[in-house]
Design a protein that fits this description.
The protein is of the alpha+beta class. It folds into three domains: 180 residues, no CATH class; 152 residues, no CATH class; 142 residues, no CATH class. It is built from 16 helices and 16 strands. Strands 3-2-1-10-11-12 form a six-stranded antiparallel sheet. A four-stranded antiparallel sheet has the order 4-5-6-7. Helix 8 packs across helix 9, helix 9 packs antiparallel against helix 14 and helix 9 crosses helix 16. About 1% of the residues have low confidence.
């Protein structure tokens, strides 16, 4: 097993070092918001009701947002998995995305002129759109600029759905792609890819465990072995001795990292559980209170809501939503820059924390709140080394059997993280073992970097010695075959 898996282990350790600093290219909500233009209130001439009437849909929308498309404000009405776009200036419905429009969208994303861009039609998986989430977004158009920027625009939604640069692609080729075995011919067959990753990491765990058992059983603290006439703890020399020594030091790491990597594929769903339980959906619904009624926003139209915000707060997206049944606007200027504009009331930076707790307390019945506190810095179950998760947040824990716990963002009135007894176990078995995401290490960077790089370098050294030994074993096995061929 060591001969068969030594190169794979080397690949995992080496690519893990790259993944500390290089992610797989993607487009997050924060990316979209940071690159979005500022809304121009003077161009919003239609009310939400007037714009939605242009779609001639009888059922109310689930979500309503105002953003900018091609330099014009648009309403984005979400109904189920679909989203409809209506221009807020003249009520035009945008249901098709021709070549010239998607080119302008891509150029606006990069900040470059459209002329140098090369366009390709994307109708099937490539390395950067191989996961299943892109299937419903095809066909897409891929625009490439001379400096290496690549932008994928969906002709279904008109959104930028993938973006990469030469640097991010290079990082992915040396990091996430080999680490996840994310090679396009394999990854496009999702079930096969998942099975290979699970079996490879499972067998790797067994191989590392065997190595640990052998290493511990052969190690002699009393130095009962003789090597070169002197007492020795191991009966080995050269690469074997190095491999045995490194295995005792880093073997547990190799075993735990491989096992926790297997857990990332959720091979035991019933055992691991889910991060969100059935109560979570009820609490989320209670924070909203009820579905959106577009007529509620006639009291304070979007143009007036934007005009009531200070000029130094450049709103890029305006969402119409509710909190505890009351209609509010959620204005966003950046990933963690928000303002709440009640339909009846003045703008505020966050919702009333006591009201959030009251809503959760009432919705959690028959369970009681076992703990409520304000979290102002990352902790064991709420941690992010990139500092992207919002702070402060409100922590509430119920007294139910699963000990369900929730972190709620008071700037949006939404649950941003949840745990129950099963997902707590998974947090340590997967994230704790695999990412070494210990809060005290994250707080004292580069402490985390030094610790993880040291462990990875140790594991990498162990893999190098295993490859040397594996090459010797393979050579011995192949020598008789080579001799036979030379004679015949």
């Amino acid at each position: 097993m060591g001969v068969a898996l030594c190169l794979l282990f080397l690949l995992w350790f080496a690519s893990g070092m790259v993944m500390m600093y290089c992610d797989y290219p993607s487009v997050s909500d924060a990316d979209r918001l940071s690159r979005a233009p500022i809304l121009n209130p003077s161009k919003i001439r239609l009310s939400p009701q007037e714009a939605y009437a242009r779609l001639q849909i009888s059922s109310p929308p689930d979500t309503v947002r105002i953003s900018t498309l091609d330099g014009r404000p648009v309403y984005r009405f979400g109904t189920g998995l679909d989203e409809s776009v209506v221009y807020a200036d003249d009520g035009q419905v945008q249901d098709e995305y021709p070549d010239d429009l998607t080119l302008r969208i891509a150029a606006a994303w990069t900040g470059q002129t459209p002329a140098p861009a090369r366009v390709e039609q994307n109708t099937e998986e490539d390395q950067w759109t191989v996961s299943g989430e892109f299937a419903a977004l095809r066909p897409m158009r891929k625009y490439t600029w001379p400096d290496g920027e690549e932008v994928y625009v969906s002709t279904v939604t008109g959104d930028v759905v993938q973006y990469s640069t030469r640097a991010s692609r290079m990082g992915a080729y040396f990091g996430p792609i080999p680490h996840w075995l994310y090679f396009t011919p394999l990854r496009r067959h999702a079930s096969t890819w998942a099975a290979i990753v699970i079996w490879a990491s499972g067998l790797g765990t067994v191989a590392a465990l065997f190595g640990l058992v052998i290493g511990v059983s052969m190690y002699s603290p009393s130095k009962r072995f003789r090597r070169g006439g002197t007492p020795s703890s191991f009966p080995y020399a050269g690469s074997k001795r190095w491999h045995a020594t490194l295995g005792l030091i880093f073997g547990i790491l190799a075993c735990s990292w491989t096992f926790s990597g297997m857990l990332s594929m959720d091979p035991f769903p019933k055992w691991q559980g889910e991060a969100e339980d059935s109560i979570g959906a009820r609490l989320s619904g209670a924070l909203r209170g009820r579905s959106i009624s577009l007529s509620d926003f006639d009291v304070k139209p979007p143009r007036e809501a934007l005009g009531g915000l200070r000029p130094t707060f450049p709103v890029k997206e305006l969402e119409m939503t509710t909190f505890s049944g009351e209609p509010i606007y959620l204005a966003e200027a950046g990933p963690d820059e928000t303002q709440i504009v009640p339909v009846r009331g003045a703008p505020t930076t966050e919702l009333d924390p006591s009201k959030i707790v009251d809503v959760i307390r009432n919705a959690a019945q028959p369970y009681q709140l076992a703990e409520v506190r304000l979290v102002t810095e990352y902790e064991s179950y709420y941690v992010d080394r990139h500092h992207r998760r919002p702070l402060p947040v409100i922590f509430v824990q119920l007294n139910n059997e699963a000990q369900s716990a929730y972190y709620i963002d008071p700037k949006k009135g939404r649950i941003v993280q949840s745990y129950n007894s099963a997902s707590r176990r998974n947090r340590w078995l997967y994230h704790g073992l695999h990412s070494i995401d210990l809060p005290w290490l994250y707080k004292h960077r580069p402490g985390w970097d030094i610790a993880v790089l040291t462990l990875l370098l140790g594991g990498l050294s162990l893999c190098v010695t295993s490859i040397i030994l594996a090459a010797g074993v393979a050579r011995k096995k192949l020598e008789p075959l080579a001799f036979w061929r030379s004679k015949h």
